[in-house]
Amino acid sequence: MKGSLLVSFAATASVIATKIVQKAATVHINKHSHGRGRKSVQISKYIFADVVCASYFTFGDDPTPYLLSIDTGSALTFVGVSRDRVFWPDSTFKRYAALPFSESFGDGSSINGNLLVGPISPAKGLRVNSTLGGLLPSESFSKLSPDVDGLFGLSVEASLDYVLTTAGFDAATRKNFHPFMFDAVAQGALPVNTFGLGFTPQIVEQGAQENAVTLGGYDEKVLTSEIMWSPVQGVPGKGFAPAWNVDFQIPAIGLVPGKSGPLPAGLVDSGTVLLNLPGTAFANYVKQLPNGVFDPDVNFVRVLKSEVDKVKSLDISIATPATKSGRSIIKLRGESQFFSDAVATKIGLDVTKYAWSWIGQGSTEDNYGAIFGLFFHQYFYVIYDASSSDGLRVGIATTKYS
Asked: Using one digit for the tens of pLDDT, what is the confidence trace for 330-343?
């Protein structure tokens, strides 16, 4: 039956790289950035830990597996960043050699290559002809993410169009390229353009999480609350790509309209590690922690372990127009705001007396909004829906980890 297949598959999760990364002075947020957005600014040295959820993909008829990060903040699926695992498209792919492209990311890395169209297989039994960036090896990308071969792009369709427009492709050319989920539904491989992500918290070593990613629907079995649906917001201004932005507010720390930027939107992005707050909201977050300290040497916030039980829950308010009040609240518990000792140790932090928060600083400016990254997805289940007649929307639900 057309569109009858709903696919769930495992993802690996781990802290896969730890190193000190030297930055020249200021790392600016690239206006074409779509994911992997540590988006750090005004720092010269920090501990960088690449925490990813990723899965193995195959391309065409070649059985070689490539590990791609599951990235809802990126528009384009691409592979081939590592010199150790070079990607060569087989004859099942159409190569658009005359259409080179490049893309830069908020962490300072970049990629370049050619656009391809051919079979992409993220799970057994699912094979979709879709757009792929076949890359030249990227030292800047692979240096920061040495175990990852590329990204599985799950951002909104308009975001891919934005990338190609920015790259200079005309409208007639752009019509040839679509994101994976769009093509999967159009070809009858999936029933609806909806997917769900739910990851296990605080994984250190690589290990499979069954049904971490569900394409063509979501995993109802893991939900412990009603789904809170929020419409996707527009972009805050010129130079911002369309993305899975929703109206998230945290009034207790000033993440509200008028104080945190022109839109209260928060980017929901599994390709970013932390929950990154803009300047004022971040400063307020640190202040409300018991003896909280931002350590600029490592770019993380710490508290004494003896104070963790005093940390308050963060009430995150979500715009939910279908509800009577128009908003819904989810609570991020105090103890859940911190890395486990195992993760903190893996990324090089001192755990002898400190607990370290995974809520971090995004832009020092207020007009970039917040980014709800991978660790947010570990405590709440997130559904990305492009199939509703009401337009793009994101659903949030609690799980046993909430």
From this structure: 999 999 999 999 88
Tokens representing residue 205 in the block: 């070593």
Residues 6+ apart with CB under 8 A from 402: 224, 225, 330, 331, 333, 336, 379, 380
284: domain range? Answer: 228-398
Number of domains in the chain: 2
Distance CA 83, CA 310 (A): 48
Residues 252 and 336 in one domain: yes
CA dihedral 273, 278, 280, 282 (to 10 degrees): 0
pLDDT band at 205 (very low <50, low <70, confident <90, very high): low
Is residue 36 domain-resident? no
Q: What is the pLDDT of residue 243?
A: 87
Between CA 185 and CA 92 the distance in angstroms is 20
- 243 and 195 co-located in one domain: no
204 and 350 co-located in one domain: no
Q: Do residues 64 and 205 both lie within one domain?
A: yes
Residues 51 and 197 in one domain: yes
Q: At 121, is the secondary structure helix, strand, or coil?
A: strand
Closest by Cα among 88, 137, 83 to 109: 137
Cα distances from 85 to residues 80, 88, 100, in angstroms, run: 7, 10, 21
The per-residue pLDDT for range 39-59, each reduced to its tens digit, is 322 222 333 445 667 888 999
| Whether the predicted pLDDT of 278 surpasses 90 | no
